[in-house]
Amino acid sequence: MDEKTINSIVDTVVDSIKPQTDMTLSAARRLSEKVREKAREMGVNAVVAISNKGANPVMVECMDDSFIASYDIAFGKAYTVVSLKMSTSKLKKLAEPGGSLYGIQFTNGGKIVIFGGGEPLYNKKGELIGGLGVSGGTEAQDTALAEYGKKVFESRSF
Questions:
Q1: Of 141, 140, 149, 134, the residue nearest 47 (C-alpha)
Q2: How far apart are CA 79 and CA 73, in angstroms?
Q3: Three-state DSSP class for residue 92
Q4: Cβ(124)–Cβ(134) under 8 Å?
Q5: Nearest 5 degrees, angle CA 119-CA 75-CA 81?
Q6: Rounded Cα distance, 145 and 119, in Å
Q7: Do residues 134 and 74 touch, judged by C-beta distance below 8 A?
């Protein structure tokens, strides 16, 4: 067995004994790898950002030839989902004209992103421990990648 496999097994066992209370770099790396694999399958050059429960960055990875603008957008999505404890897809609906959160993107120093591609991440106890933001494709592609990442994270199949 290689070191990567051993570390993954150890992390899985530790998670089952004591659930994470905050996003770790190890978990963020494994999750980002899965999301980037899926992005490659979809033909998207994505930026994947993962924040901790304080909305601070744990890691941001840019696939080759990703858009420069996607860096800030992906991080903004990871920040937004932790700050508001909801996906950016859900927030989009609330931030539309006439919605209860219309104009929210102009608060918090402009860091709030109101389109799909961001998902909050919870531990096995249902506690918010971080956020995932993906940018680089269409909104539908970013949303699909973030939803995939959340599903992978929740199943701990990474």
A1: 134
A2: 10
A3: helix
A4: no
A5: 30
A6: 10
A7: yes
- Residue-wise pLDDT for 105-122, tens only, equals 999 999 999 999 999 999
Is residue 59 a contact partner of residue 49, using CB atoms and an 8 Å limit? yes
In 72-150 the beta strands, taken as DSSP E runs, fall at 118-122, 128-135
Q: What is the mean pLDDT of residues 87-110?
A: 97
The full set of domains in the chain, from first to last, is 20-155 (3.30.450.150)
- The percent of residues in the chain predicted with pLDDT above 70, rounded, is 91
Q: Enter the pTM of the model.
A: 0.87
CB 82 within 8 A of CB 54: yes
Say how far apart CA 142 and CA 123 lie, in whole Å. Answer: 22
